[in-house]
Design brief:
This protein is mainly beta. It contains four helices and 21 strands. The chain has one domain: Neuraminidase, CATH 2.120.10. The strands form five sheets. Strands 1-18-17-16-15 form a five-stranded mixed β-sheet, with no helix packed on it. A hairpin with a 5-residue loop joins strand 13 and strand 14.
Length: 415
């Protein structure tokens, strides 16, 4: 039996145990999700009380100096970090079309989440391609910025990504030299390897990143890992079920986010509502399922524990459209309710482009991989793109999950 099939068999056994007496790993209860009115851009949902939103970046073809300096109109794939008392947002920027040259990765910083610096290049243009994540904080307290290694001007594909570039974000907010973190299989022009750096702390941080399989699984299909190190469920042939399920399984593994429940289990949530659970810190995973009450499509799902120990899931509650952006809350990381709108606006999409879905999507928040804890705030910070031409942040007060909320004992914790 091959390693993947052995791990799949083990995971199936663990899955039966994990879900004993529990239909699915995530349940959305309450009536809001069944009563959405998509004639309204907020779906008819009440807004989160105390919500604050701020535009980080807005494309402007007529006045490029007010935006990215070039007037490029495609801006998407955002990620969020907290580092040395600042928030960082990074995203991909293309001239017009998704994943189509010319492209580059940009970033902006803020001391308060309200006022944001003018965007700068995270990597020199022509060096990088977009990822789902751009920041990694090592156990030694180094913050690394990473992106895909660009090997040409062809339109990028999520399944072919794998080579990586990296540089350090220093404590004084300057950027270090660019290195190759993961070399391509076929030799190609590239920056020097990270191991060539004379900074041994930086080299160690890079090695930690490469050894952190859970972090790297956030990229589609586990493409940043060697095949033997990926979740077995990226191969539909190892799934237990009929041909129709295996066909559906080809959708699994896009834009996974992870959070840890109070019982220590790690939950992975991906596009189209696929959910998998690990009881051993990511070594094995239950066969993914799509909980029937987690209705969502291709706009990504973000799950996290809040500072008070509650849990939130943030997503678009429809299988086709990417509005509104909604949040559901709970106490145990399994059962969620009280759906509210975190972004209910739908501005006019001002510029044409390939794959430019309307609405607020691709939401991410702060995670243990991207937050050093120095940006002290008791809220929940989120970043997302709007119409794939604007980048926004939102702050949800931790009281978004009121005392006594559904889903288990108050104060359940674990990150």
């Amino acid at each position: 039996m091959g390693r993947w099939r052995l791990l799949a068999a083990i995971a199936l056994g663990l899955g039966a145990k994990a879900f004993a007496g529990d239909d699915v790993p995530i349940r959305i209860v309450g009536g809001e999700g069944q009563q959405l009115d998509f004639a309204r851009t907020d779906g008819g949902l009440a807004p989160v009380a105390g919500l604050r939103t701020q535009v980080v970046f807005r494309a402007d073809q007529d006045d490029p100096l007010r935006s990215d300096g070039r007037g490029w109109t495609y801006h998407h794939h955002p990620d969020l970090a907290g580092w040395q008392h600042r928030l960082y947002v990074a995203w991909s920027s293309c001239q017009c079309d998704e994943d189509t040259w010319p492209c580059r990765e940009l970033y902006s910083t803020s001391l308060d989440g309200v006022h944001w610096s003018a965007p700068q290049e995270l990597f020199p243009e022509g060096v990088s391609t977009p990822l789902r994540v751009y920041f990694y904080r090592s156990a030694g307290g180094r913050l690394l910025a990473l992106a895909g290694l660009r090997l040409g001007h062809e339109r990028t594909s999520e399944r072919t990504k794998g080579p990586l570039v990296v540089r350090e974000v220093h404590a004084d907010h300057t950027l270090g030299p660019v290195y190759t973190l993961r070399a391509p299989v076929t030799p190609a022009p590239q920056p020097p390897p990270y191991a060539a750096s004379a900074d041994l702390g930086f080299v160690d941080a890079c090695r930690q990143l490469l050894a952190d399989h859970l972090f790297l699984e956030q990229q589609d299909y586990g493409a940043l890992l060697d095949p033997a190190d990926r979740m077995p469920w990226h191969d539909p042939e190892v799934w237990a079920g009929d041909a129709e399920l295996r066909k559906d399984a080809t959708d699994f593994g896009k834009a996974l986010s992870f959070y840890q429940r109070g019982d220590g289990s790690v939950v992975g949530v991906g596009k189209k509502g696929w959910v998998t659970v690990s009881g051993d810190s990511g070594v094995t995973w239950t066969q993914p399922v799509r909980p029937p009450t987690l209705v969502t499509g291709m706009g990504k799902v973000w799950g996290q524990q809040t500072p008070s120990g509650a849990y939130v899931l943030v997503y678009n509650p429809d299988r086709r459209i990417r509005y509104p952006l909604a949040v559901v809350t709970g106490r145990d990381g399994v059962t969620y309710g009280a759906m509210r709108a975190t972004h209910g606006q739908l501005p006019v999409q001002r510029y044409p482009g390939r794959n430019k879905d309307r609405g607020a999507s691709y939401v991410r928040g702060l995670s243990r991989w991207s937050d050093d804890g120095t940006f002290r705030d008791d809220g929940v910070w989120l970043v997302y793109s709007v119409n794939k031409e604007e980048i926004w942040v939102s702050r949800l007060p931790d009281t978004v999950t009121p005392a006594g909320a559904i889903g288990g004992p108050e104060g359940a914790s674990g990150r």
